[in-house]
TrEMBL record:
Gene3D superfamilies: Crotonobetainyl-coa:carnitine coa-transferase, domain 1, formyl-coa transferase, domain 3
Entry GO MF terms: CoA-transferase activity
SUPFAM superfamilies registered for this protein in UniProt: CoA-transferase family III (CaiB/BaiF)
The keyword Transcription regulation is annotated on this UniProt entry: no
Protein name, as recorded: CoA transferase
InterPro entries with a match to the protein in the record: CoA-transferase_III_domain, CoA-Trfase_fam_III, CoA-Trfase_III_dom3_sf, CoA-Trfase_III_dom_1_sf
Keyword line: Transferase
Amino acid sequence: MSGPLSHLRILDLSRILAGPWASQVLGDLGAEVIKVERPGIGDDTRSWGPPYLQGANGNNDLSAYFLTANRNKQSLAIDITHPEGQELVRKLVAESDVVLENFKVGGLKRYGLDYDSLKQINPKLIYCSITGFGLDGPYANRPGYDFLIQAMGGLMSITGHPDDEPGGGPMKVGVALTDIITGLYATIGVLAALSHRDRTGEGQHVETALLDVQVACLANQAMNYLTTGKAPTRMGNSHPNIVPYQDFPTADGNMVLTVGNDQQFARLCKALGHEDWASDERFATNRARVANRRELIPRLRQATVMRSTREWVEILDSSGVPCGPVNTLDEVFDDPQVLARGMKQTIAHPELGEVPMVGNPIKLKLTPVTYRTAPPLLGEQSTSVLGRIAGLSQAQIQDLRDRGVIS
């Protein structure tokens, strides 16, 4: 084991995306992550396909969705509804630093696997609960899913084209972004709690909720509302506070301009052959451009359509104007910058062969992230984990397997 968190053991009782995303980040940073799954079924996302990655031997496959968030983990298949399965989890808790879970509120209490029960076994335990709506409040007992939270948390009210435009209406983000960001906030909370424990010896309960995270991540749009009392609306690819900051047509497609200040706007005008726009009082400052975007944007569109995307990117990049193409995913993973930054990885697996992975964006110079193991097959490490950590003999493990407590 290597990495800045190689001294830690994470017991991951979570599934789907937010929890597994958090534990994968911790695993990439070197922590030992033991993923507890249901025998015969496993994490729900194992069946969320197609597409699937077919094993090299043709006998096994894993869904692309499961591959997203489960590298650097060991799979331990335990039936936690069985008293002996619960006792196995407690044995592992006694030897772990962190427990991650995303069951419904109170869902683990019936098994004696809630925080209040487990801290009696391990007072230094960091126990992280990820829920849809939080552990308290009027919605606490509701199940929460990313799509639902994007709607309830306001993100869909500001994503998509306006109602009066073709294709107008609320739109979710193209990936489960609320789940992912909740996983990142959970990771931050766990690391903060570990830092506190290092100084005091105290464990604690960490909590993150999808709705809380979604509201927090409304960022400037939330503050636009709180400072004015006026709810922002959908603006397509336009920005509420910056102009021009959106997509523009080219001779062969589209490109994005992200002009962040007046100096960049002046350079854009020069590159477009319309230096006079930069001195026009309607467009000279960002405040003026926001107020007069209806006059400015059509002018820009008439200019950008005269060259190809590649030509504009070369011209504007050399002029110091932030811009870029609207890439498809095949273009993303063929981009020289993406490749140079190690965002496309592969990990070898004895049965699955070479498993493609998206790289971790954290760059640590002295203790870099590592890609040690591919996402596991269900129960792949049950025998080794129970023998090494829980101290069970091979005969005991086989007996548990024969009785369906583990697989």
